Amino acid sequence: MKIKQLSLTVAAAAAFLPVWGLTTTASANTTNTINSTSSMPDTQYVRKSATGWTYNLGGTASNMTFGKKTHYLKNYPNTTWHATQKRYITKKNGVKYLYYYVTNGKKTASGWIWHGYLQKKSYSHTTSTTSTKGTGTYASVLKAAQAQLGKPYVYGGNGPSSFDCSGFTKYVFKQAIGQTLPRTAQAQYNAYDHVSASNAKPGDLIFFGTSTSNITHCGIYLGNHKMIDAQLRGVVTEATNVSWWHTVGYARPATLS
């Protein structure tokens, strides 16, 4: 009789146990599922930090798989990514995530990436070349630039401890000759008179990207196909006539003697 009463007591107690644990187990995903995929207007993004990969996504809508990692954002510090598709995915943990399908400007890198690794690209609306030129010596610009060699690259870095590409050029010209450059690479290109490659002088700014309206990187030209710039490896002196840099043009923010 006592055994029977004990069984009834346990059964009754079980009826009052919270059911959230049972519900979670019953509804837990055993696969990654695609909730929706749709086209979106071509929207330009840059990386938010050096973290994150693009992926090849495979499988089916009800059993989606994360395939090969294709491109590590750490290796693309100045790339503009074009997002043209968006996909909502519910992972095995039951959480819904938004992914973008992105392609770089040269269409040599693409894949799906979690949207949190990216931020929308900002633009300067400066389109004229009316900024006032500075004056000074190339020696002072070179000295200020070389003093930053070895300092790390940080997106949005303005110095003096870390830099991004345009933060570096802006800092150097301010320190060397008191010249205030615009903040972004695109704005710096837009703001000053352009010079041809054959007429470029040490101390000019050199710009890279996919076009004159899509400047993604800049540095201080040293002559003889060399520059000093802030890139993934930090502030370095490097060659400009290499395959991974696509030179768009040069600008002269100051008259240097």
UniProtKB/TrEMBL annotation:
Residues 1-28 form the signal peptide. PROSITE patterns: NLPC_P60. SUPFAM superfamilies: Cysteine proteinases. Keywords: Hydrolase, Protease, Signal, Thiol protease. InterPro entries: NLP_P60_dom (IPR000064), Papain-like_cys_pep_sf (IPR038765), Peptidase_C40 (IPR051202). Pfam families: NLPC_P60. Residues 135-255 form the NlpC/P60 domain. Belongs to the peptidase C40 family. This is Gamma-D-glutamate-meso-diaminopimelate muropeptidase. It comes from Levilactobacillus zymae.
